[in-house]
Amino acid sequence: MLKMTALHWATEHHHRDVVELLIKYGADVHAFSKSDKSAFDIALEKNNAEILVILQEAMQNQVNANPERASSVTNPVTVAAPFIFTSGEVVNLASLVSSTSTKTTSSTNIVLKLRMSLTRKL
């Protein structure tokens, strides 16, 4: 058994309308088959430019098209740890910008503070 989704199968057999319908109703365009191929990979192998474009757009819009599949985190930047790893140490980026000066501090000043902090730690 190949463990292919309906989207994989429709892509492999050049069924553009079926691909569009599956995507419209929430098919996971990021799913991989047993042989580690996405529908996009299959369309690429089959030289199907039309389906490639459809899949590419769907991949870019998957979160917007399927909000029920989206994680509760809407902005990965808000979750990412604000740290930089240097030689043997971790620099907390939040400590470089005080909460009182955040609104007035330019990005250039933040970069300068970061460079000074890294230089002191090295």
TrEMBL record:
InterPro entries on file: Ankyrin-SOCS_Box, Ankyrin_rpt, Ankyrin_rpt-contain_sf
Database matches in Gene3D superfamilies: Ankyrin repeat-containing domain (1.25.40.20)
Signal peptide per UniProt: none
Gene Ontology terms: cellular component: nucleus
Gene Ontology terms describing biological process: positive regulation of transcription by RNA polymerase II
SUPFAM superfamilies named among the record's database cross-references: Ankyrin repeat
Keyword hit for Transcription regulation: no
Keywords: ANK repeat, Repeat
MF term (GO), any: transcription cis-regulatory region binding
Repeat region (ANK), residues: 2-34
Protein name, as recorded: Uncharacterized protein
